[in-house]
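Anyone up for a design puzzle?
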């Protein structure tokens, strides 16, 4: 795992030393080695930078940027099946000088061009410079495990794993994109392709970008899209056949992700997904697998369940109980490591467990993706039930006001959601087809009411609408629209961002076996009822795990990393609200309706606010603004 950064300056005005400064800002991602190289062409100056965390081929032979013929690469990630691809290339006459997967990427691209990426099983953010074609190519992995940002304005193109390196280039203009900021307050993160800054974007997963140096033409293309697999005809497999095939794919995915020249461990929560990862891996090992859990005296505490799972599976388990003080000490660091406003408070325990694991291993496997692929979230069950209720309403009752209000309360019982928001959401859902119903209800359940979102700001702006909300055709099951949406939005932009920044902050490589693209494609193409019956999620995955761990040990409510953030903000952390959400601090950016937000804070302090998460989002933005603007 590594960090990459660089620039293409069509004005040839970048001062010397800038690239080294950019590389230095991401040294935490790769402390073992760093490299940079500058190319001066008639059309542009090109700078490629890299920091290395040695995982495969620990020798200096893996140094980047790396060259082969007319190609030069800087790359972050792992190609797990690189040995198989290498063997194929050797049979085609290629000769190799290193044992690294980086060299395999160069040879594969030389042999097959962009089609080489179809062979890759792994996680990657790749930047290639083709000197012969005078072209820059950016490629991001299918699931979006590895980040890749780019900026293009006034003849300056900048790329990198993290935005912090962009700030070191004098051509980078820090202008907040209000439309993207509105999305942040909607979701708690900024979904791709947007970023907090104007003219700055995340390369979307499954995409590649071509920049022609001769005319500065930029072309964005898709090589893989999860929605395509949800829209295909379902595989004609019986449940036992699907279960057997899924089991085989899981074993292959896990085996690939154990390939390493350094120690490997697993984040173990005690839930189904991480227990499945640990159980399948431990069965294949001669020694004991290292597993790690973090426990809390406040909030949800899964440590006892993880310990029980570890004992049964037989892993070498390390448990760390975190105090409130230790958890709160992470908060000031979030804005630096996450680059953009990011409001998932579970970043705090994720950073803590990453630090714990790094003391013993250099690679840690996570179990992210199980809920998105196999309908594990309770919200799926809730959505299923809401749609079922709507579809059983006779048309003649849909216009009845009294009945309508009752339905709004039934569909959205949460007392903290305003009745106006309930009515607006339900009225839309009552008059659309099943697929659109799923979209409308899902958005209602996962976003901030428009009235709040618009009242936060003191100026108007054009709102972005994420592509998910504009497209509902072609799906075989309305619920699968939501699975695809969570995969593309929440998983990629929240969970994977959280894990990447947390693990990389301590130079720990995080791997995601459940996001092997073969597994994702298979999960998308099996019937929905194999995943959920409308009451219980992850059916097929749970049935596989029960071959390793007794069902009685796993039967308990779903939990997860949950911290008492709201309680902290009203007590131990109330000083942060006084510092960052006072009228003077809010007016500093010139973005906000300070009277509206001041009133929200008072409502929050008096337990009268419908949307408490909004206060944490405001705080995270304000801390980010102080750090980066």
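Challenge accepted. My sequence:
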């Amino acid at each position: 795992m590594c960090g990459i950064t660089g620039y293409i300056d069509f004005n040839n005005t970048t001062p010397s030393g800038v690239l080294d400064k950019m590389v230095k800002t991401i040294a935490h991602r790769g402390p073992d080695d760093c490299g940079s190289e500058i190319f001066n062409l008639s059309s542009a100056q090109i700078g490629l930078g890299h920091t290395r965390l040695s995982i495969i081929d620990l020798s200096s032979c893996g140094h980047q940027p790396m060259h082969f013929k007319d190609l030069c690469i800087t790359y972050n990630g792992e190609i797990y099946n690189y040995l198989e691809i290498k063997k194929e290339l050797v049979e085609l006459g290629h000769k190799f000088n290193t044992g690294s997967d980086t060299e395999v990427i160069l040879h594969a691209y030389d042999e097959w061009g962009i089609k080489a990426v179809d062979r890759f099983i792994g996680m990657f953010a790749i930047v290639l410079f083709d000197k012969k074609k005078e072209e820059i190519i950016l490629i991001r992995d299918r699931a979006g495990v590895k980040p890749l940002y780019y900026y293009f304005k006034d003849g300056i193109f900048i790329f990198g794993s993290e935005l912090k390196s962009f700030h070191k280039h004098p051509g980078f203009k820090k202008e907040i994109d209000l439309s993207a900021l509105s999305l942040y307050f909607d979701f708690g993160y900024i979904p791709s392709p947007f970023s907090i800054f104007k003219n700055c974007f995340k390369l979307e997963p499954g995409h590649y970008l071509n920049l022609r140096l001769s005319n500065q033409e930029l072309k964005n293309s898709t090589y893989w899209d999860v929605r395509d697999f949800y829209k295909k005809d379902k595989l004609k497999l019986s449940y036992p056949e699907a279960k057997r095939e899924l089991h085989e794919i899981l074993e292959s995915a896990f085996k690939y992700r154990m390939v390493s020249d350094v120690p490997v461990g697993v984040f173990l929560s005690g839930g189904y997904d991480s227990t499945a990862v640990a159980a399948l891996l431990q069965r294949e090992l001669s020694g004991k697998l290292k597993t790690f859990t973090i426990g809390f005296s406040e909030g949800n505490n899964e440590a006892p369940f993880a310990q029980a799972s570890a004992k049964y599976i037989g892993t070498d388990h390390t448990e760390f109980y975190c105090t409130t003080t230790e958890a709160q000490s992470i908060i000031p660091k979030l804005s630096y490591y996450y680059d953009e406003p990011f409001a998932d408070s579970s970043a705090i325990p994720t950073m803590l467990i990453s630090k714990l694991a790094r003391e013993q291993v250099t690679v840690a496997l996570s179990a992210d993706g199980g809920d998105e692929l196999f309908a594990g979230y309770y919200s799926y069950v809730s959505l299923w039930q809401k749609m079922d209720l709507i579809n059983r309403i006779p048309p003649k009752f849909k216009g009845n006001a009294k009945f309508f209000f009752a339905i709004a309360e039934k569909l959205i019982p949460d007392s903290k959601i305003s009745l106006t928001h309930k009515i607006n959401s339900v009225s839309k859902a009552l008059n659309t087809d099943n697929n659109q119903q799923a979209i409308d209800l899902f958005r209602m359940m996962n976003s901030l009411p428009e009235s709040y979102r618009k009242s936060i700001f003191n100026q108007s702006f054009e709102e972005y609408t994420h592509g998910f909300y504009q497209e509902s055709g072609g799906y075989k099951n309305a619920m699968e629209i939501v699975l695809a949406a969570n995969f593309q939005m929440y998983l990629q932009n929240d969970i994977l961002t959280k894990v990447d920044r947390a693990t990389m902050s301590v130079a720990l490589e995080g791997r995601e076996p459940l996001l092997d693209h073969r597994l994702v494609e298979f999960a998308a193409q099996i019937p929905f009822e194999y995943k959920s019956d409308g009451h219980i999620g992850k059916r097929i995955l749970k049935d596989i795990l029960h071959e390793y761990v007794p069902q009685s040990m796993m039967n308990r409510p779903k939990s997860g990393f949950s911290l008492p953030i709201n309680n902290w903000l009203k007590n131990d952390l109330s000083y942060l609200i006084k510092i960052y959400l006072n009228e003077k601090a809010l007016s500093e950016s010139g973005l906000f309706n300070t009277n509206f937000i001041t009133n929200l804070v008072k409502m929050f302090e008096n337990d009268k606010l419908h949307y408490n998460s909004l206060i944490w989002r405001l705080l995270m933005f304000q801390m980010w603004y102080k750090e980066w603007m």
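A detail worth pointing out: DSSP finds 26 helices and 17 strands in the chain.
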